[in-house]
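#struct-help
A.M.: can someone run this one for me? Single chain, 168 residues.
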Amino acid sequence: MPILPFRASSTKLVYMKQVLRLSLVGFLFLASCSWGNGAIKKRAILEAQSQFREVITKEAEAAIENNWLREGFVDYVEKHSEFDVEDLKVFGDNNAVALVSLKSIDPNQRKILAEIAGKVEKDKVRNFNFSNALRLISQQTGMSRENVKLPSYEIQLKKGNGDWTIVK
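D.P.: on it. Structure tokens below:
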């Protein structure tokens, strides 16, 4: 009879070892997926930032002649923009689609800001303050200064040579 309790605890010990092994394997799998997803998310955000920069650069070029003010406008808008991966779908080991959300200055306020910056006299260019101008625009139009959610960027990625690249 004394052997039975020893066998029972031995069976429990074997069962606990199997549970620990499976837990460890599951943890390692999740950790590897999270690590890989981090690289995908980072690459997708960089691409969305690049695409958004193209948009605001075109806005600045259309309204602002002065290079210093044009660059200042682009920098100001970029600094007041937030990117986040809203959704990520990985297909196999080599393909992924990321939906990158963007919160930034309202496009109507950006347009007015660019137009105002474009009308600044040459001798007052260095004194122009984008933040103060946006505050005044907000007061005059009644629009909120809070960043608004803008349309998301859908970024398609493909893995090649160990790195995630953008599919155009």
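A.M.: thanks! Confidence is low (pLDDT under 50) at residues 27-35.
D.P.: also worth noting: The first strand starts at residue 82 and ends at 91.
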